[in-house]
Amino acid sequence: MILRVLLRTELRTKSGALPLIGLLFITLLAVAGPIFAPANPLLRVDTPYLDPSFQHWLGTDEVGRDLLSRILYGIRLTWFPVLAVIALTSAIGTLVGAVAAAAGGLVELLLNRFCELMMVIPATLIALAAVASLGPGTWHLVAAISVFWWPWYARIAHTEIRRVATRAHVEAARLAGVGRPRLFLRYLLPAALPSLVVAASLDVANVILVLAMFSFLGLGAPAPAPELGAMTAQSLVSLTTHGWIPLSPAIVIFILAFTANLAGDGIRQRMEST
Questions:
Q1: Would you say residue 18 lies in a domain?
Q2: C-alpha torsion 116→119→121→127, nearest 10
Q3: Domain total for the chain?
Q4: What are phi and psi of 58, to 5 degrees?
Q5: Which of 102, 133, 142, 182 is most buried by a 10 A CB count?
Q6: How many CB atoms lie within 10 A of CB 242?
Q7: CA 268 to CA 274: how far, in whole Å?
Q8: What CATH number should be reported for the domain holding residue 94?
Q9: Is the Cβ–Cβ distance between 131 and 158 less than 8 Å?
Q10: Per the domain annotation, does 122 fall within a domain?
Q11: Considering the domain boundaries, does residue 233 fall inside one?
């Protein structure tokens, strides 16, 4: 359903289609990119600090590993956790917001206050402490971020569902005896979905940068896993002598975040114009 909304809103305009095509290409690269990697990203294949050449398109790093291979694997280690965070947080937030809107009364009040409390807490710092206590690891990182990232989606879902619940066609369905589960799935959730899609699409770039930051700090997958943020951090010592080594993964992180941000902005503009 979400993919259908994305295609419907983006592919109608060329300017909106290009970022979406970019996201699809990134996803395809994350899935199939390692197949085209010229070498094992964990093993030394040549002399360290080789310049880019036809043999090693991006050269070799400080250990002698093929940099292009490590980046191709690094895209996967960045992109899939980002999608996991977005999926988990949007699902949790939608569930909490829907329960608050449907229950009303004291339950709604308590859930809203809890969401406000979670939004006030500096989520990144708390997640940083959680990952530090759990130990480095990609899925520890995904879990820690997801626990504190969902309140924004809960507020959106709650606001949209409460707004739609007062409309005439929903009241008519309720008076006609439509049960709560069907009323939610047929009338309320579809009305809240566009706003949630926009929020999720705009959030992808934020999650990319947060995950890259944690990886840069050494809290992602343990070395020598080819995470983009960790690759940048590990090769910073060679910035002034072999600058392409730390800059290559950093530029890829920027491209991922920039493409995601363009796609999210295109979806938002399209939603506002309809």
A1: no
A2: 140
A3: 1
A4: -115, 15
A5: 142
A6: 19
A7: 10
A8: 1.10.3720.10
A9: no
A10: yes
A11: yes
